[in-house]
Amino acid sequence: MLILLFASIMLLTTLASPECADDTVIFKGKKYTIVKDKPKNSDCKGDEVLRDESGEEFCIAKTTDPKTSGRLECDNSRYAECGRENPPGKNTARIVNGSPVEGIRFPWLAFLHDLDFRCTGSILSSSVIVFAGHCFISSIAKAIVGVNDTRSVNALTIYFGRVVIHPNYSPSFNTSFENDIAVMITFRPIEFNKNVGPICLPETKTFDMIGVGTVLTVAGYGEYKTLESITKKYNLVKTKQMGREEFAEVDLAKVKTIAYETLAELLPNLPQILDQNLDTKIELNKENIPILLAENIAKLESSILKQITDEADRKSFKSFIESLFHIFIQNGPYKNKEDLFELSFKIAKITEGPKLLAQYTAYTVVSPKKCREEFRELENGSLPNVLCGTPVGPGRVCSGDSGAPAAVPISGKYYLAGVSTLLLSKEHFLLIPLCTVSNNSEDLDVWEDIKPHVNYLKEKMKKKSFF
Fold it and tell me: In terms of CB atoms within 10 Å, which of 79, 99, 129, 163 comes out highest?
């Protein structure tokens, strides 16, 4: 005998959605399986019955009042299991010179942003997302979950929440990587499904399995094409860039020489505009700057642009050169090394714009000793709680990847080992390899080690939502 179930038929229509693909639903805390079998009871409606775990069958009553009936909900409890990885599927997203993320492969990835910043985070629970402390200066942020391309979103994939930065984080140059961790506590619970779920927090025995040589999977929503990445890809700049130590030791004249020679390779009419001391030779105004830029692009057509074989790269490079031209002209005069150092970071930010696609690459953990050697000029030689790793292959994190998880797959689950905080590159002048590995294989990227913060994060995870 069929038992009448007074549930909202409006909600029943959602049962065929991907979220309920296994035909399992919850009604008043009890689990049912949807059976494609037309009810024989004339008081029932629809072409399906609900079967509980004992085998007893129920149907939706014709007299169901949506305003007073109980709710039928998808059973997504299995998606709450931490560290899941979905089988790879087809996707065109790319990391800089790296590997594609196929489908929604990592359900625990989140993209966070406010008016000024964008970062990557990791879902820890139905109310907590962890990311880097340096990502935000505002107290409210927006998170997008369950998508590869963050331009393809809907109301169900967007969550707002309160940003809580670690109380011992100190945002300054010498300490910006110490306690560089924050959480977003969502205003409403994150709904888990196939494409959305938490990453695992390691326990003590898990940390024992993470050490020198461990391969980290790093995923994020960073840029995938920059001026620097194209110049590296096609070997467009022959002028050798100086390292951090050399930059600190050489005089201003040497720095200006390298800057002039580097820029002259990318801006063919540079000698017409500036002398080798980077002082203007002609008066620049709103009338002649567009003419000089057009002349520069025309000269590139017969030189560097011939070396760029991919049409999309050619288009991007032209746009980048326009940006470079304006940045360099508008930021002079360059009277000291600090001016040129600042210029290098402005050049590093010349990108095609945020693609905001999920991307991933791999790193190998290096020894604390090697990390300390690289950090010796910071914090008087001390080393905060960080993991250091060298890129495996050409892929590397980039702008937008701050806070990106360094995850370790153990026994079929992904565990969060670190949160992306900064990059260290041997080449550190005009063409900073922020997004690709430089010719020096000793480039290091740095993550805030999760180990000292596990108890702090667990305490935050006790909250079901901010309210």
Answer: 129
**What does the pLDDT look like over 151-193, one tens digit per residue?**
777 777 899 999 999 998 876 544 456 788 999 999 999 989 8
CA dist., res. 435 & res. 224, Å (int): 8
Tokens of 366: 């290096």
Polymer length of the chain: 467
**HEC states along 272-325?**
HHECCCCCECCCCCCCHHHHHHHHHHHHHHCCHHHHCCCHHHHHHHHHHHHHHH
Cβ distance 346 to 285 under 8 Å? no
Burial string for 63-82 (b: 16+ CB within 10 Å, else e) reads ebeeeebeebbbbbeebeeb
Burial state string for 448-458 with b = 16 or more CB within 10 A and e = fewer than 16: bbbeebbebbe
The alpha carbon of 202 is separated from its chain's Cα centroid by a whole number of angstroms, namely: 21
Closest-CA residue to 7 (of 38, 41, 30): 30
Asked if 321 and 301 count as a contact pair (C-beta separation under 8 A), the reply is no
Give 386's strand partners: 448
User: How many beta carbons lie within 10 A of that of residue 384, not counting itself?
Assistant: 19
What is the pTM assigned to this prediction?
Answer: 0.69
